Amino acid sequence: MSTRAPQPSDPPRLTVSLGSGHAAYTDEGRGPVIVAVHGLPGSARDFRHLAPHLARCARVIRIDLPGFGETPAATEPDPSPEGRARFVLSTIDALDLEPPTLLGHSMGGVVACAAAVAAPPGRLARLALLSSPGLRPHTMLRRLPFRTMNTLLSLPLLGPALTPALRALFRSSGFRGYPDGELLRTITCVTHTSIARHADNVRRVALPTLVAWCEDDPLIERDIAHELAAALPDGPRLRFSKGGHNPQKSQAVSIAETLCGWLATSS
Questions:
Q1: Do residues 261 and 254 make contact, with C-beta atoms less than 8 angstroms apart?
Q2: What would the pLDDT profile of 213-231 be if each residue is shown by its tens digit?
Q3: What band does 1 get if pLDDT is binned at 50, 70 and 90?
Q4: Rounded CA gap, 71 and 40, in Å?
Q5: What separation in angstroms does the CA of 156 have from each of 150, 152, 163, 166, 264?
Q6: CATH of the domain at 30
Q7: 127 φ, ψ to 5°?
Q8: In terms of C-beta density within 10 A (0-12 exposed, 13-18 middle, 19 or more buried), how is residue 71 classed?
Q9: Is the overall model pTM greater than 0.90, yes or no?
Q10: Residue range of the domain that includes 44
């Protein structure tokens, strides 16, 4: 890698047509393909610090999941990780990509694991998980009544009245600047996420897997991260003492160096 640090990148979205609508994505760099899947809420912008480092050694495709960024929710109405995994695999097929490394951050890691289990043999090459949920509910899932919140927010009169409180809740958890529609979609997606099913998917993953986490993550306890790393197939393990919930920003250089080295030795 060059010693000159690249600037964060936020390229214009491209679109590809799927059967039910379009998927929005970005495309930068050349080499082995990495497909990046953001968390909740989130978008392709979540990888703006990591992608330019990875683009020195790889072609980086960042996808907006349905209902986030510039991909309409109608493209894949199923808000579950399995529905979003189908969307990711359909996008990979529509772009006619070589078997990629699928990289998921936060709840995007749940989607990535579901995709790794659902994909036909040989369709994906590797898996990389950054600050991903693990085999049991983490702090935020235990603390907030997502199912009740989803019911109340869906009521025609009560929902709009509660939206400002929802916005404040996300801001207090470090998620700022997201449109209300994406916050509502987040609650729906989390409500339709089964950590028990995710744990089963983790145990069924057969791809070489990189796992990275920060010990000071305020959302996912380090014990959960350690359990996840121990349960997945062999691959690089990156444990950072600091970096919070977003190592794709705070530890972008180290993650990119490890991923690029891993791709080079695996090719």
A1: no
A2: 999 999 999 999 999 999 9
A3: very low
A4: 14
A5: 12, 9, 12, 16, 53
A6: 3.40.50.1820
A7: -130, 140
A8: buried
A9: yes
A10: 14-138+194-266
